[in-house]
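Q: My labmate handed me this sequence with no annotations at all. I'd like to see what the chain might look like in three dimensions before we decide whether it's worth expressing. Could you predict it?
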Amino acid sequence: MTVQHIDVIRPAELSPTDLELWGELRASTAPEANPFMSPEFCQAVGRVRQGARVAVVRQDGEPVGFFPFERGRWGRGRAIGLGVSDSQGAVLRPGVSVDPHELLRASSLSVWEFNHLESGQDLFLPFATGRFASPVIDIDTVGGYAGYETLLRAGSRKFLKATRAQERRLARQAGPLRFVFDERSPAVLKTLMAWKSAQYRRTGRRDRFAQDWINNLVRMLATTRTPSCSGLLSVLYAGERPVAAHFGLRSRTVLSCWFPAYDRDFATFSPGRVLYLRMIEAAAAAGIGMLDLGRGDAAYKDSLKTRELTVHEGAVLRAGAGAALHWLSHEPPRAVRGFVRERPQLKSAALRTLAMAGRMRDRTPRP
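A: Here is what I predict for the chain of 367 residues:
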């Protein structure tokens, strides 16, 4: 009889055998080797997020799966690196059956939230509440970069023609263009992060680089060099000045696009588009078969993509304070009342949580 057990450890406690098995399982079960699902990404998050954990599923004492997550107060859990991770889920040996609620119980979680659950995660798909397109560029299936550019001419001819024209204008007015696919300069990475922060603020979005853990995570991943997860900084220079840059993560076969930005002084030349065309060509030459542009609407993604993947958001819930808080913060009040009213365990947990919050508020000194 097969005996199943779940251990919860910190990412740094993964053994060399665990890391090897994790990599083998991803290689054999995942259609796309997204670096956000690598053990190296999990371990990097573990160095900047105190709540990072990995549930190791064992059968007869042998590891057969890994579930990375972050645990917060009240048992509120979330996908590892939620907020910056573009691919989420569990890594399980084919045929292994796990009860998701038992997985949460063993992990001391009352809720596990995700927003980029990859397709094929049958364990968690029943709990998805939304699905979203994540555009990708297939290089291998279209005959390399030459085949891809042929597709662009057919489907996005105006985009390609305008970008090439801007490329020539930029070279004439700002100096000879130089592209570096794998730039190792910390100074240029810092420049990119400053550009991106300004872009977030300018567009009214939350500045991710205002959070220390994201700053530290990106700098750490910039020096990571493993087959399943490497930081990749690509830069377009005009003369000796960087005018556009992108930082992402790559595996052997997938480049997951992450943080693109450009110098606003050169905005009229569309340097970001020029950068992407150079980057796609270099990725193809490096043996990368797919660029994942990531969830989110953008005109340049529509022009560059060859197809779309599907990612999901949602949450797995168990009775507990964390689940109650999740619903209180994510659902309209009327839906929350109906949901909790129909579940006595959640109702009592919600009342206990609100009472505790009230006591904490009463103890807070008033000005």
